[in-house]
Design goal:
It contains 9 helices and 8 strands. The protein is α/β, with parallel strands linked by helices. It has a single domain (2-264), classed as TIM Barrel. The protein has an 8-stranded parallel sheet. Helix 1 (19-28) links the parallel strand 1 and strand 2.
């Protein structure tokens, strides 16, 4: 059995009518649980509704870094109320995104500072609620967002865990996350032909510190690359990574499921 540890079932790319069949396909592929991530305040109720309707689905709530400019300054009180919902398993998706240009009326400096402020506030909230945090980082060049996110995580590392989702980097970067007690999670990128560094990182990350995800509807793995992604496809990611780790698929699934249970605090 597998968990898709990061997907976006509330995306407009998934109509409400097809969620049932989509979850059935996931179950048929051996995917027994899905974590659906909200990215802004308006997105949260739909994700919570999906988690309430389908017992296989849990929700995570947060403000994506690309949404901070459209989020009111007093958002935290509302987010805290959502975070206490009985189907919420973590805080996120939050993080830093230095890839996309600043929106109109913002400089890169002011936009990135607001992202950093929000990320720190998410860490504080997670400590208060006893939850862990799901981190997004993305850079156009270099690794500034990754390094800045690590620096913001460090003061909180003794109180919570953070998973750096959709991990795209080499093992040398993964090590920096692991040193703080964090986790890394891998997407369909690991199945791409030019992703040797990502596969190496996945193969060297210790059991108990690795999860797999689809990031649906994005980043569909081979053999579905270029198409809309969905949770059932996480099996292809698990097969690729378990092969690289010289593990039987069942062994890989067993330890990643234990990691999911612990990180999201959901148990069996």
């Amino acid at each position: 059995m597998l968990t898709d540890s990061h997907c976006h079932l509330g995306s407009h790319k998934f109509s409400e009518d097809e969620l049932g069949p989509l979850i059935d396909r996931a179950r048929d592929a051996g995917v027994n649980r899905m974590m659906t991530l909200a990215t802004n305040l308006e997105d949260i109720p739909r994700n919570l509704s999906i988690a309430e309707k389908f017992p296989e689905v849990y929700a995570c709530v947060g403000i994506h870094p690309c949404d901070v400019h459209e989020t009111p300054d007093d958002y935290l009180e509302t987010l805290q109320e959502f975070a206490t919902h009985h189907r919420v398993a973590a805080i996120g998706e939050t993080g830093l995104d230095y890839f996309h240009p600043a929106p109109k009326g913002w400089t890169d400096g002011s936009y990135h500072q607001r992202q950093r402020d929000f990320l720190r506030q998410h860490f504080v909230l997670a400590v208060e609620t006893g939850q862990n945090v799901v981190i997004h980082t993305r850079d156009r060049v270099g690794d500034a967002s990754f390094s800045d996110a690590l620096a913001l995580y460090k003061p909180f590392a003794s109180d919570l865990q953070a998973v750096f989702h959709c991990f795209p980097g080499p093992y040398s970067q993964a090590e920096r996350v692991l040193e703080l007690g964090g986790l890394v999670s891998f997407t369909g990128i690991a199945t791409f032909k030019k992703a040797a560094g990502v596969v190496d990182a996945a193969s060297r990350t210790p059991a108990g510190r690795i999860m797999v995800e689809t990031d649906s509807p994005y980043l569909a793995p081979v053999p579905y690359r270029g198409k809309r992604c969905e949770p059932a496809y996480v099996r292809h990611i698990a097969e690729t990574i378990s092969l690289a780790r010289s593990e039987q698929l069942e062994e890989f699934c067993a330890h990643t499921e234990t990691t999911v249970d612990r990180f999201f605090k959901i148990g069996k």
